[in-house]
Design goal:
single chain; alpha/beta
Length: 213
């Protein structure tokens, strides 16, 4: 019987906070992307209020290079949950959220951030499927083929990059404890010239949130 909470049930915002709070392990893994700055500040769930056009919603992760706010990166993230039921049905949860992810990312690219990325976070609780054995198996072949067949680029602005990360809870340890991990770049973002009004917004966000930390 499992005693630890399920990684697949960790809320999306909590998952992002956990990943970004660990600079040497998790943050280093998911931010190790071509074109990302070596030194930057990271701000989570930043309201889009004040951006050109006054869009509704948040930037899930705003990456601000220390000395180059004009090269800021906006990341929109969505998780795909693969819990014990998904192994029985062959259907991961939350696939219906992907169109919204595309819509949000397209908006940020249109606003003009230097780079915009979609992060697809596949969180897998394979403890029951592993029958309590100490092994690191995650997705089975059926689920892997299902996720492999997804077209993340359909309807996505050509400027937007896509990263897919898979995090597995294979044994009864805390979420993001004993785990296996993989990541792949589906497409690198196209850099663009960031408008001055967006850079001004970034500087205001940086000043406000950095002083509140």
């Amino acid at each position: 019987m499992n005693t630890q909470p399920s990684l697949a049930e960790l809320a999306e915002s909590a998952l992002l906070r956990e990943l970004m709070a660990d600079p040497t392990w998790w943050r280093g893994r998911i931010m190790n992307v071509v074109g990302f700055p070596d030194v930057a500040q990271y701000f989570l769930e930043v309201s889009c209020a004040g951006l050109p056009g006054e869009p509704i919603g948040d930037v899930d992760v705003l990456v601000v290079p220390d000395d180059a706010p004009e090269h800021s990166i906006a990341i929109q993230a969505k998780r795909i949950k693969v819990g014990s039921n998904a192994f029985a049905t062959g259907e991961p949860n939350l696939l219906t959220k992907l169109p919204k992810l595309r819509q949000q990312a397209n908006l940020l690219a249109e606003i003009g951030f230097s780079q915009t990325y979609c992060y697809v976070l596949v969180v897998v609780d394979s403890r029951q499927n592993n029958n309590g054995e100490f092994r690191y198996d995650g997705l089975d072949q059926r689920l892997r083929e299902k996720l492999g067949s997804l077209d993340f680029l359909s309807g996505l602005d050509e400027r937007v990059g896509v990263m897919q990360f898979e995090m597995v809870q294979p044994v009864d340890d805390r979420p993001l404890g004993a785990e296996s991990f993989s990541g792949r770049c589906v497409r690198v973002a196209k850099q663009q010239l960031q408008p001055p009004e967006v850079t001004e917004w970034v500087l205001k966000v940086k000043e406000r949130l950095a002083s509140a930390a």
